[in-house]
């Protein structure tokens, strides 16, 4: 450990130094990553191919799946490789890219969840104006704003975080380059700029949370006025999955980033980091598919033999041209 101050990169401590546990961790993460990959790709494919799902709600869901796919790909493959090679080293360039994409995609995810809550609010509380408010141009601009906002957030955090002088051994007690853990390596009183940027990001995320809460308060007050149980069930089937995803993601991330700093890293800290980095991208496709009849019907159609035959004939015709 004496030479750690002279290296340009960092050492990710991960979950354990035991070789068997490292292999087990790699296998579990690999299975989880494959499930997330398959699930989110299915959502993207279904919402693209099935014309019945070409509505704003599924357009935003497709981009949420794309964000989830990219988000889990930022941290998990690197962690799997480190465990298999029994080497936690990550270069400075890799760490910079990981921090940028992690913050950018996490910020974009919060933004897209806010947009999705507004979409549900307009659809349920202002149904007569829905097509006017959520027209294709507005949806496209909203998604562009989501990606741009995430990118700017990632740039700010990355620029400020890696301008802070570091003191001591470059050991990160996490399975990825986590900003709260990296700030523990900063020299005294040299990370005030990062705290300012983090405060701005936290305030923005809190504003998104307030917007989501207000949207769902209005949604549920409207739903309770629906006279038929069937109508209420149909609305809840589209709103409850989104509400669960928002609650799970923001509560886990909030615990990690808002808790008081500690010089030691516990197993509980690592578990909470999994709760907002690995589990949401894996569960989101399952949650949205199981609670949504239109998604299940579209999935059956895409996976049916007839659909495969039609796609095959279409591709042959395209190649002949």
Automatic annotation (TrEMBL):
Main location: membrane
Entry GO terms, CC: plasma membrane
Membrane topology: Multi-pass membrane protein
Residues spanning the membrane: 26-46, 58-76, 96-116, 137-156, 195-217, 238-258, 270-290
Domain G-protein coupled receptors family 1 profile residue range list: 39-288
Keyword Transmembrane belongs to the record: yes
Family matches, as Pfam families: 7tm_4 (PF13853)
SUPFAM superfamilies in the record: Family A G protein-coupled receptor-like
Protein's UniProt keywords contain Metal-binding: no
Domain of life of the organism encoding this protein: Eukaryota
One GO MF term attached to the UniProt entry: olfactory receptor activity
CDD domains found in the cross-reference section: 7tmA_OR14-like (cd15227)
Compartments (UniProt record): Cell membrane
Keywords carried by this UniProt record: Cell membrane, G-protein coupled receptor, Membrane, Olfaction, Receptor, Sensory transduction, Transducer, Transmembrane, Transmembrane helix
Gene3D superfamilies reported for this sequence: Rhodopsin 7-helix transmembrane proteins
InterPro entries reported for this sequence: GPCR_Rhodpsn (IPR000276), GPCR_Rhodpsn_7TM (IPR017452), Olfact_rcpt (IPR000725), Olfactory_GPCR (IPR050516)
Similarity comment: Belongs to the G-protein coupled receptor 1 family.
Role description: Odorant receptor.
Protein name: Olfactory receptor
Organism encoding this protein: Erinaceus europaeus
Protein's gene: LOC103128097
């Amino acid at each position: 450990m004496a030479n750690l101050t002279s290296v340009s990169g960092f050492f990710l401590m991960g979950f354990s130094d035991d070789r068997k546990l490292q292999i087990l961790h790699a296998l579990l993460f690999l299975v989880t990553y494959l499930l997330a990959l398959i699930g989110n790709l299915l959502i993207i494919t279904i919402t693209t191919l099935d014309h019945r799902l070409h509505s704003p709600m599924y357009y935003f869901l497709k981009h949420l799946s794309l964000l989830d796919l990219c988000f889990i790909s930022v941290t998990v493959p690197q962690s799997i490789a480190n465990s298999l090679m029994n080497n936690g080293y990550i270069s400075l360039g890799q760490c910079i890219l990981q921090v940028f994409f992690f913050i950018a995609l996490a910020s974009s995810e919060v933004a897209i969840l806010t947009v999705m809550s507004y979409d549900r609010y307009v659809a349920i509380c202002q149904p007569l104006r829905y097509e006017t408010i959520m027209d294709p141009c507005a949806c496209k601009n909203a998604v562009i704003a989501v990606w741009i906002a995430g990118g700017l957030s990632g740039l700010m955090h990355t620029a400020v975080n890696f301008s802070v002088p570091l003191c001591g051994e470059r050991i990160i007690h996490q399975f990825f380059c986590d900003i709260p853990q990296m700030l523990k390596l900063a020299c005294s009183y040299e990370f005030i700029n990062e705290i300012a940027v983090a405060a701005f990001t936290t305030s923005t995320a809190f504003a998104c949370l307030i917007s989501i809460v207000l949207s769902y308060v209005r949604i549920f007050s409207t739903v309770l006025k629906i006279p038929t149980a069937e109508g209420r069930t149909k609305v809840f089937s589209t709103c409850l999955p989104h509400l669960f995803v928002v609650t799970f993601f923001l509560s886990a991330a909030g615990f990690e980033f808002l808790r008081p700093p500690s010089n030691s890293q516990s197993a509980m800290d690592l578990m909470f980091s999994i709760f907002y980095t690995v589990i949401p991208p894996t569960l989101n496709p399952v949650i949205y598919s199981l609670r949504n009849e239109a998604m299940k019907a579209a999935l059956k159609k895409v996976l049916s033999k007839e659909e495969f035959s039609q796609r095959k004939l279409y591709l042959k015709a395209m190649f002949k041209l």
